[in-house]
């Protein structure tokens, strides 16, 4: 086997290997005629990742004569070859991967600038082919989004969070952290984000459903997709069936298959149906929190330009917010939800000190203003 | 330089791999064999599990072994413990009741759909079929086994530098995600518990029921068992499938399972099933079956061992069936050049043992001597002795009579030292008991008087024990002289017993009970007392010996009221060195058959240092007693000695003025 990657493709290859290191401990390598397959699976066999690099990805690609060759190696040793990602693109001109069958070695040679040559000889182990059985066409729900949207969404969850819950309806997506039923609810912090269907490039939901999966493996894919600026497609079905995350390019295809939490007993379905009712009532709460965010941003921006014009405009939102707050209290009689929302908004307001993040929040404000207009129109109608 | 060194290291590791692979590793031939026969799913599982296991796991293989002459060469490199793994309960070498106990537990907890995890703990010596039982039951009852294996952390790469340099400033999302073994274990347990396995290509196994099997524990848990306890408590709350823990006993007892689970067995409701070593009859049956299959398969290339050799293997492995099968595989190959060289080297070892026998001055070797010499040559496991049997071998020293003309002649004035030949090698007995010589001597010292019938013999034996103690008196050469001390003690005891000098002499009493050393109890009491004294009299900053033998008796002589209640009680209890003899018989703790001779929490060096520090203490105590007399005669000296202490404690203990009346009442 002999394949040579040049230029920016070396960085893409390195990013792919770093994404696979989030999944499992071993890298499965399988060169075939239609490209090089890099795969990984975690120790509990609940997450699988596969990168298929076509021959066009490489400047030169030569498949091994032995078609049944496949091997695996510790992913940390491959990761050590492609370390210092920030300087990889600047210094490495070419990357060559060769297979030395006589010595049972995989040779990775990095051709750097100024004639510098780095050669790494990695030992491998023969193994069987590793391939998860999944079918994207049979999934009923399909989402496609730009990686920036997904990264912005997942950034709100703390790194120590293990599981995340994704709920979809006909026009909206909720993402919240999953807390075990036995856990003390007063101690757990609930985080929830709501995304409209207009945020997505492709939104095809045929049934309302809710799936729970681990967040650590998802972060591995998002890191790769963000650096390559490729859209992410999600294919999922009912709870218990695996969710498939796909990133496709003309020369590259990545598939992440994550197992989801299955619900065994009927009582859980009953609890789930109960939880779905507050989902329908949550959009007004989200608008309240959005108004709070816009109010905070308006207060911040009022300091920068002329103050004489700005104080008049916040008065009207305050009056509107009071009326909407009193109306919501009379309608829902839910005393616990508004304090949580206010606390979340105040917390996120204090979390954003950087002006660049403030600008991004302003951009999100512009997007969310249309939602409030939609709500006003629906209320008037 | 670093690259050259790393390349050299890799080359040397490659060479080692090349040497190790023909016996145990997977070759390309092995892969081709898997392609020829056997389902892909079984082979892929075997490959996956083998790669993750550090040690050779004999019972994981799912391959169906078919006798085929075409695949003889690849079979030759497979370990027999993998090829001949048991496929059904009939092939298990485990007692039927144990298998039924495990099966009933699994049936109960696999079919329950209620929330809350169940934990099963399997303990027993290594090689007794714990993992094989779980694998066979998984096949018969129809559930998956999801197994944790410790990740191999390559310390060659510096993880800190690796993750620091892998930081990508272009991405706000990429963070350092290095995780410890404990974190990885917790993640595995969460995902294996809640999430079902993804279906891989080639897998035909579609069972949805499964158990989690843990045989290797992260190293952090042995240092801090609390981490494991917290993870298990969390698992108990939200468990969905059973958790099976397998812990092998160590040679000197069940330290591993006791260390990990002694606190939480009752709290978490862990069900414990302990396995016994494999019975010789079951092992003989398994070895015979393997020999029959391999003889048919090899068609004469393998030398078929006879029944005597199999008996020898069974006795040599002492219940470890993995060791027995490996020894059988090594001893059966005759035509392979590599195995021939290995066998020749082992024959060389066995031939080198015989000159040692000759060097001992013995002209003839008996059957038992042949057996002892031959079992290490085959590669048998070191047989460990329980402490009870080890002591019995020394105290009931068995002998055999010489032939008529072979007995060495002693001069007439040394005829009382005439002894028959020993059947026991005392150095070997101490080695197999897995104890230090000093500790073994403690047990001998406690138990030897019951086995002697003559006071002169007891005097001579105690002389030898004193010589053994003297050999380790010098601290700088103690580590070297320990073995000589134990040799002097054991051989001296066996030689001094004149009632057992002849091989045909009948012992009068059959069974004599053995006891644990009273020194352990005394040492424990001493340690408790000086720790109490140290905590009560912390301000004096004295060593334990000085505190207990000088200061506390001196304080008992004073009428100083500046003491708190606990200190006064301690002084009254321990301060007066009475001259009375301790009457009554000492109650000794009996040594049972299976007692492992557990050391206390202290290390051996601390015990020996504490034991030696007792001797100068008595001398100092006598000096203190003599020095107390002039103090009582001179009242002005006593007052001058007690004056500085009230000034130091007067400010802190003003409320102690009421205690003067108590002393006046005394």
TrEMBL record, chain A:
Residue ranges for the region (Disordered) are 266-290, 303-339
Catalytic activity of the protein: Exonucleolytic cleavage in the 3'- to 5'-direction to yield nucleoside 5'-phosphates
Q: Which Pfam families match?
A: Rad9
Keywords assigned: DNA damage, Exonuclease, Hydrolase, Nuclease, Nucleus, Phosphoprotein
Q: Where is the composition biased (Polar residues)?
A: 310-319
Where is this gene product found? Answer: Nucleus
Transmembrane stretches, by residue range? none
Q: Which GO terms describe its molecular function?
A: double-stranded DNA 3'-5' DNA exonuclease activity
| GO aspect biological process, one term | cellular response to ionizing radiation
Q: Does the keyword Lipid metabolism apply?
A: no
A single GO CC term for this protein reads: checkpoint clamp complex
Q: Which family does it belong to?
A: Belongs to the rad9 family.
What is the annotated role of this protein in its UniProt record? Component of the 9-1-1 cell-cycle checkpoint response complex that plays a major role in DNA repair. The 9-1-1 complex is recruited to DNA lesion upon damage by the RAD17-replication factor C (RFC) clamp loader complex. Acts then as a sliding clamp platform on DNA for several proteins involved in long-patch base excision repair (LP-BER).
- Which protein are we looking at? Cell cycle checkpoint control protein
Q: Organism source for this protein?
A: Danio rerio (Zebrafish)
Task: Provide the organism lineage as a comma list.
Answer: Eukaryota, Metazoa, Chordata, Craniata, Vertebrata
Chain's gene name: rad9a
Automatic annotation (TrEMBL), chain B:
What biological-process GO terms show up in the record?
DNA damage checkpoint signaling; DNA repair; mitotic DNA replication checkpoint signaling
* Domain of life (superkingdom): Eukaryota
Keywords annotated in UniProt: ATP-binding, Cell cycle, DNA damage, Nucleotide-binding, Nucleus
- Renumbered to this chain, the Basic residues biased-composition regions fall at 357-366
* Cellular compartments per GO CC: nucleus; Rad17 RFC-like complex
Q: Does the keyword Nucleotide-binding apply?
A: yes
Major localisation: nucleus
SUPFAM superfamilies for this protein: P-loop containing nucleoside triphosphate hydrolases (SSF52540)
Q: Where is the composition biased (Polar residues)?
A: 61-74, 615-650
Q: Where in the cell is it found?
A: Nucleus
Q: Does the keyword Cytoplasm apply?
A: no
- A Pfam family reported for this protein in Swiss-Prot or TrEMBL: Rad17
Question: Which ranges carry the Checkpoint protein RAD24-like helical bundle domain?
Answer: 384-508
Q: What are the boundaries of the region Disordered?
A: 1-79, 344-376, 597-656
Q: Could you cite one Gene Ontology molecular function of this protein?
A: chromatin binding
Where along the chain is composition biased (Low complexity)? Answer: 1-15
> Known PANTHER family for this protein?
CELL CYCLE CHECKPOINT PROTEIN RAD17
Its family remark reads: Belongs to the rad17/RAD24 family.
Write the protein's name.
Cell cycle checkpoint protein RAD17
Q: Which organism is it from?
A: Danio rerio (Zebrafish)
Q: What is the lineage of its organism?
A: Eukaryota, Metazoa, Chordata, Craniata, Vertebrata
């Amino acid at each position: 086997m002999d394949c040579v990657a040049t230029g920016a493709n070396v960085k893409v290859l390195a990013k792919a290997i770093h994404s696979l290191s989030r999944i499992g401990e071993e890298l499965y390598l399988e060169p075939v005629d239609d490209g090089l397959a890099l795969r990984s699976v975690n120790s509990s066999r609940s997450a699988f990742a596969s990168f298929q690099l076509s021959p066009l990805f490489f400047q030169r690609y030569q498949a091994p004569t032995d078609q049944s060759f496949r091997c695996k190696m510790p992913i940390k040793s491959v990761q050590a070859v492609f370390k210092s990602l920030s300087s990889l693109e600047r210094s490495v001109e070419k990357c060559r991967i060769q297979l030395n069958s006589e010595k049972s070695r995989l040779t990775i040679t990095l051709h750097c600038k100024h004639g510098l040559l780095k050669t790494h000889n990695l030992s491998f182990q023969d193994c069987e082919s590793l391939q998860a059985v999944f079918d994207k066409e049979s999934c009923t729900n399909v989402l496609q989004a730009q990686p920036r949207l997904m990264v912005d969404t997942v950034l709100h969850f703390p790194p120590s969070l293990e599981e995340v819950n994704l709920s979809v309806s006909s026009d909206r997506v909720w993402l919240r952290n999953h807390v075990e039923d036995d856990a003390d609810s007063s101690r757990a912090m609930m985080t929830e984000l709501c995304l409209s269907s207009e945020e997505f490039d492709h939104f095809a939901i045929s049934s309302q459903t809710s799936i729970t999966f681990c967040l650590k493996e998802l972060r591995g894919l998002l890191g790769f997709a963000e650096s390559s600026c490729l859209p992410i497609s999600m294919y999922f079905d009912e709870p218990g069936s695996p969710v498939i995350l796909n990133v496709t390019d003309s020369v590259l295809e990545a598939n992440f298959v994550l197992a989801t939490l299955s619900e065994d007993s009927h009582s859980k379905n009953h609890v789930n149906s109960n939880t779905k009712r507050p989902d329908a009532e949550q959009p007004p709460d989200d608008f309240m929190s959005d108004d709070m965010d816009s109010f905070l941003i308006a207060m911040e921006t009022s300091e920068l330009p002329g103050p004489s014009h700005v104080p008049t405009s916040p008065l009207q939102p305050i009056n509107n917010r009071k009326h909407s707050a009193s109306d919501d209290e009379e309608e829902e009689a839910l005393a616990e939800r508004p304090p949580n929302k206010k606390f979340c908004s105040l917390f996120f307001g204090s979390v954003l000190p950087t002006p660049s993040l403030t600008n991004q929040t302003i951009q999100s404000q512009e997007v969310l203003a249309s939602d409030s207009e939609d709500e006003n129109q629906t209320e008037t109608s | 330089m670093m690259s050259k060194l790393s390349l050299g290291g890799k080359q040397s590791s490659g060479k080692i791999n090349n040497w190790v692979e023909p016996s145990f590793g997977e070759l390309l031939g092995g892969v081709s064999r898997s392609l020829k026969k056997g389902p892909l799913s079984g082979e892929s599982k075997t490959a996956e599990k083998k790669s993750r296991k550090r040690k050779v796991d004999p019972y994981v293989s799912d391959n169906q072994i078919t006798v085929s002459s075409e695949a003889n060469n690849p079979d030759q490199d497979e370990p027999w413990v993998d090829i001949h793994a048991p496929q059904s309960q009939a092939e298990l070498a485990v007692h039927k009741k144990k298998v039924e106990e495990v099966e009933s537990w699994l049936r109960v907890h696999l079919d329950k759909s209620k929330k809350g995890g169940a934990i099963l703990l399997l303990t027993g010596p290594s090689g007794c079929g714990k993992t094989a039982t779980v694998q066979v039951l998984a096949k018969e009852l129809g559930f998956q086994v999801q197994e944790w294996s410790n990740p191999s952390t390559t310390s060659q790469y510096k993880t800190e530098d690796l993750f620091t340099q892998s930081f990508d400033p272009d991405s706000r999302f990429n963070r350092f995600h290095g995780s410890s073994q404990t974190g990885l274990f917790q993640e595995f347990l969460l995902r294996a518990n809640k999430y079902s396995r993804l279906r891989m290509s080639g897998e035909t196994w579609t069972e949805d029921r499964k158990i989690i099997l843990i045989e290797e524990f992260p190293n952090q848990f042995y240092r801090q068992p609390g981490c494991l306890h917290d993870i298990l408590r969390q698992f108990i709350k939200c468990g969905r499938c059973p958790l099976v823990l397998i812990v092998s006993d160590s040679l000197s007892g069940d330290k591993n399972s006791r260390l990990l689970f002694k606190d939480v067995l009752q709290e978490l409701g862990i069900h414990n099933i302990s396995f016994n070593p494999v019975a010789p009859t079951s092992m003989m049956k398994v070895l015979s079956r393997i020999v029959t299959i391999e003889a048919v398969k090899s068609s004469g290339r393998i030398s078929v061992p006879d029944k005597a050799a199999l008996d020898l293997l069974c006795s040599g492995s002492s219940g470890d069936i993995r060791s027995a099968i490996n020894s059988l595989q090594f001893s059966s190959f005759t035509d392979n050049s590599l195995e021939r060289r290995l066998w020749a080297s082992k024959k060389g070892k066995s031939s080198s043992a015989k000159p040692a026998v000759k060097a001992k001055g013995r002209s003839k070797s008996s059957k038992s001597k042949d057996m002892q010499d031959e079992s290490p040559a085959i590669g048998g496991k070191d047989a460990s002795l329980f402490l009870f049997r080890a002591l019995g071998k020394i105290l009931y020293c068995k002998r055999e009579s010489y032939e008529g003309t072979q007995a060495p002649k002693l001069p007439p004035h040394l005829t009382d030292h005439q002894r028959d030949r020993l059947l026991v090698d005392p150095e070997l007995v101490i080695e197999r008991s897995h104890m230090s010589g000093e500790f073994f001597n403690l047990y001998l010292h406690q138990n030897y008087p019951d086995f002697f019938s003559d006071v002169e013999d007891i005097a001579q034996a105690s002389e030898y024990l004193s010589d053994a103690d003297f050999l380790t008196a010098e601290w700088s050469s103690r580590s070297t002289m320990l073995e000589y001390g134990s040799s002097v003690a054991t051989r001296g005891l066996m030689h001094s017993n004149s009632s057992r000098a002849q091989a045909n002499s009948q012992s009068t009493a059959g069974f004599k009970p053995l006891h644990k050393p009273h020194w352990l109890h005394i040492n424990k009491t001493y340690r408790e007392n000086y720790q109490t004294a140290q905590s009560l009299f912390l301000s004096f900053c004295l060593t334990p010996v000085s505190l207990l033998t000088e200061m506390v008796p001196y304080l008992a002589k004073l009428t100083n009221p500046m003491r708190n209640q606990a200190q006064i009680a301690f002084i009254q209890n321990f301060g007066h060195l009475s001259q009375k003899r301790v009457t009554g018989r000492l109650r000794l703790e009996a040594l049972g058959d299976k007692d492992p001779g557990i050391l206390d929490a202290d290390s051996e060096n601390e015990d020996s240092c504490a034991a030696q520090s007792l001797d100068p203490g008595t001398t100092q105590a006598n000096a203190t007693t003599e020095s107390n007399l002039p103090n009582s005669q001179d009242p002005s000296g006593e007052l001058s000695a007690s004056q500085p202490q009230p000034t130091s404690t007067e400010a802190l203990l003003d409320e102690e003025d009421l205690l003067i009346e108590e002393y006046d009442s005394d």
